Amino acid sequence: MGFVVRQMQPEEIQLAVGWAAAEGWNPGQFDATTFYNTDPAGFFIGELDGEPIACISGVTYGQSYGFVGFYIVKPEFRGQGYGLQTWNGAITYLKSQSGRIFGLDGVVEQQHNYERSGFRLAHRNSRFQGQFFENFAVDPHLVAIQDVAWEELLAFDRQFFPAERGKFLQAWFQQPQTLSYAYVDSALKGYGAIRPAETGWRIGPLFAVNYPVAERIFRSLVAHTQGAACFLDIPLVNPDAVKLVEVYQMTPMFETGRMYTPQAPPLNLKGLYGITSLELG
To answer: Same domain for 84 and 155?
Structure first.
């Protein structure tokens, strides 16, 4: 039978999420279906003699943007060329639309390999962990995300993400136990979400017009975690995001690099305090 790369079946996304958890990525408890349904054609399995040994996603957001994630080869099969073949399956899919920009979050030791495929480092990201026992009050300017006009939310989100992603966000906010707030003061000034993960809670996205708004959303999100571990992925290029994790004494865990090809899209990184997901951007 040999090695083949094929599209992932719906029930196999749990396998990919399980591999991601084993790698220490700590995915959300209910991320699997949301991820897969964003672009079912963009998930791939590398199969050796009928056994899945590798996976990758190349999720498209319309015609202009795509994101590579879930690039995992089972440890005992690494270094044998299976990863590259699986990688090529996702890249071929993303290149089906000419002119599409696509990105990824690459661990430091693999970034030189991604450069060989034309990716260039745009900025560094880091995951931080913290625990919060304080009973932070919910700011009166915060409302449930469902109370914000949908088109206004999508327009705000578009400042920080390279494409419209309404389908993804609707599913993201509706995941069980997910808490999401929008900060409204005559207009939408920020929003954030927190969801249960394999360990603790994952914060993301967290977008805001300035530090005070980001801090108020952050405090309201972590207020209900009751001391459980909270994780936040930040772009280190945003000094106010760095300030946030320092003020709340969060500990750095690991670093990745946001990389793009053929070029980085224009984004408001000064307002990006928490990356949505290392798997889907």
So the answer is: no
